[in-house]
């Protein structure tokens, strides 16, 4: 699902005050854990696992309401969280991620995820990614595709959302970042490029871009 950008990045002449990363599918490959956990839950409730397609990047309660409005949402959420927390097999950093995080040392960086705080912590630790500022499902009333997670992340970093670069992999996350007024770099790790058309730049993975901190601000260029 690689995307080959044509010409220079649309923000090649820009710098950013901060970078906000989505987690699952952008920083961390948790696909196996997610699929195993959700499929197991679906089968426990006689739900066709195929109904789960197309919901990546959405908060768990929204997915539950979409595919199984008849089940107890609180119990379902608790069960899925239990399954995902117990399964970190194959949870690793995606290509280019560790290099990107290292290159951003000294710049304001945050994670804004649809996962709970505990699940985000477990997956970041499993992938050996050290980012201290994490905005999770627990921190906002409205998750993606609403802008709230990115607005709160920018607030915590002390920067203007319009001066932030967001890295995302899901259409709902791209929509949320755009609604927050952020510039968006999307990776095709979990979605086709066409589904990420709202982003300012679409690349295959973070390995396709180079992050640099220049005079305290972040510059991004294509490799």
From TrEMBL:
It comes from Janibacter limosus. Pfam families: Hydrolase. Keywords: Hydrolase. The keyword Hydrolase applies. GO terms for molecular function: sugar-phosphatase activity. This is HAD family hydrolase. The keyword Signal does not apply.
């Amino acid at each position: 699902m690689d995307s080959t950008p044509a010409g220079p990045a649309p923000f090649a002449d820009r710098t950013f005050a901060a970078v906000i990363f989505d987690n699952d599918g952008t920083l961390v490959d948790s696909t196996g854990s997610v699929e195993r956990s959700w499929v197991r839950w679906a089968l426990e409730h006689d739900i066709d696992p195929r109904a789960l397609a197309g919901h990546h990047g959405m908060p768990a309660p929204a997915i539950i309401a979409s595919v199984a409005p008849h089940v107890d949402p609180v119990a379902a959420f608790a069960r899925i969280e239990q399954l995902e927390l117990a399964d970190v097999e194959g949870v690793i950093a995606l290509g280019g991620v560790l290099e990107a995080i290292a290159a951003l040392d000294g710049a304001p960086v945050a994670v804004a995820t649809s996962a709970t705080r505990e699940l985000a912590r477990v997956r970041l630790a499993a992938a050996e990614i050290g980012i201290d500022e994490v905005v999770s499902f627990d921190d906002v009333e409205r998750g993606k595709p609403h802008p709230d997670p990115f607005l709160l992340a920018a607030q915590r970093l002390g920067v203007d959302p319009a001066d932030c670069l967001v890295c995302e992999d899901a259409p709902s996350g791209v929509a949320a970042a755009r609604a927050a007024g952020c510039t968006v770099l999307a990776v095709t790790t979990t979605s086709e490029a066409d589904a990420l058309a709202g982003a300012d730049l679409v690349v295959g993975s973070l390995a396709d871009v180079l992050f640099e901190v220049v005079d305290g601000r972040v510059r991004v260029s294509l490799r």
